[in-house]
Design goal:
- The protein is mainly beta and 106 residues long.
- It is built from 1 helix and 9 strands.
- Helix content is 9%, strand content 43%.
- The strands form 3 sheets. Strands 2-9-8-5 form a 4-stranded mixed beta sheet. It has a 3-stranded antiparallel beta sheet with strand order 3-7-6, with no helix packed on it.
- The chain starts with 10 loop residues before the first strand and ends in an 8-residue tail after the last helix.
Length: 106
């Protein structure tokens, strides 16, 4: 008889907890699952606001529009997050010329 030995995920750690991006940029974040020998069947990535930033199954973030979003990495019942702030430098330049401080929006 073989005993099953299940090692549960204790923690997930991301290489970043915050990032700033410009509209149209892509950035990959990575996750480490602890312990290394856990029986994790996979990591699920998601975004709190796909209108601002999306994320694919490999942890690659795409900045869509100005604003804030949180990227989540989840395995079993553990979650890690990375706050994403997306800005549009073209719009900020136009706002500056018009006398508007775009930082007030965030």
């Amino acid at each position: 008889v073989v005993d099953s030995f299940i090692v549960k995920v204790e923690n997930i750690s991301l290489n970043k907890t915050e990032t700033r991006m410009n509209v149209g940029e892509d950035e990959r974040i990575s996750a480490a699952i602890y312990p290394d020998d856990s029986n994790c069947k996979g990591l699920h990535w998601s975004s709190s606001n796909n209108a601002v930033a999306t994320v694919n199954s490999e942890g690659e973030i795409h900045a869509v529009a100005p604003g804030k979003a949180t990227i989540y990495a989840k395995a079993d019942n553990k979650t890690a997050s990375c706050d994403v702030i997306v800005r549009d430098p073209k719009r900020e330049t136009e706002d500056f010329k018009a006398g508007y401080d775009s930082k007030e929006r965030f």
